């Protein structure tokens, strides 16, 4: 994966994400929010609403991912964080 924001790789053809983006717009809205946040944050919010998943569960997942990333020299974020640190940080979205 290339560093930076998600974006189109091939601009000479329709993107296969067109339909996905339509569904994302219908479910999430918030078109002013960056695409990756809408995709992943929207999926997380939908999971929370559908299954009652607490935000703390996502904080635990982030903490576990940071422990794995610490050992990956190609990871973008290699600093280990705890679930408590994640929960205490600024919540970007979904609010």
Description:
It contains 4 helices and no strands. 3% of the residues are buried. With 95 residues, it is mainly α.
What order do the helices and strands come in, and which of them pair?
Layout (H helix, E strand, L loop, with lengths): L17 H10 L7 H17 L3 H15 L13 H6 L7
* Portion in beta strands: under 5%
**Spatial separation of the terminal alpha carbons:** 28 Å
Q: Please report the number of helical segments.
A: 4
Helix content: 40-55%
The overall strand count is 0
- Find the structural class using helix and strand composition: mainly alpha
Tell me the Rg in angstroms.
15 Å
Shape: flat
Contiguous uncertain segments of 5+ residues: none
- How would you spell out the order of helices and strands? HHHH
Q: Round the mean pLDDT to the nearest integer and report it.
A: 86
Main sheet specs: none
Summarize the structure.
The protein is an all-alpha fold. The protein is 51% helix and 0% strand.
Relevant terms:
95 residues; 4 helices; mainly alpha; 0% strand; 51% helix
């Amino acid at each position: 994966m290339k560093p930076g924001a998600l974006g189109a790789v091939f601009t000479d053809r329709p993107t296969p994400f067109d339909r996905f983006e339509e569904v994302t717009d219908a479910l999430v809205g918030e078109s002013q929010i960056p695409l990756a946040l809408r995709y992943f944050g929207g999926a997380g919010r939908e999971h929370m609403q559908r299954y009652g998943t607490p935000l703390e569960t996502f904080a635990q997942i982030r903490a576990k991912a940071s422990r794995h990333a610490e050992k990956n020299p190609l990871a973008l974020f290699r600093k280990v964080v705890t679930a408590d640190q994640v929960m205490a940080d600024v919540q970007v979205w979904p609010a």
